[in-house]
Amino acid sequence: MGPTAASTLGGFAYHFWNGACFGIIFALGRFNLPGWWAIPYGAAVGVGFLVSPVVQGLGVGIFGVNFGWHFAATVLTAQLAFGASIALLLRRDSVVATIRCRSCGALAS
Asked: Looking at residue 41, what is its pLDDT?
């Protein structure tokens, strides 16, 4: 947690919107891929984070090896859950997938 409640809430909000943007990127860039591809996409986002300079800047080394296996396991589990939630939102029978355009009536996905 952050030093203040405001910084903690700000961090949560930033993380939420960052994830929403990654979800939008997948939804718009998937073309005709089935929605379940969101799960490997989530895993790729997690692996990308684990090999990024951010993790090395935290001082835990690539894949968090200096912090223990729990770090990588937590990150990858969270990102797999993220991918699964995107896959559920992109199902053909979900509310998100059946939104219609206001001007022409076409389905959004």
From this structure: 95
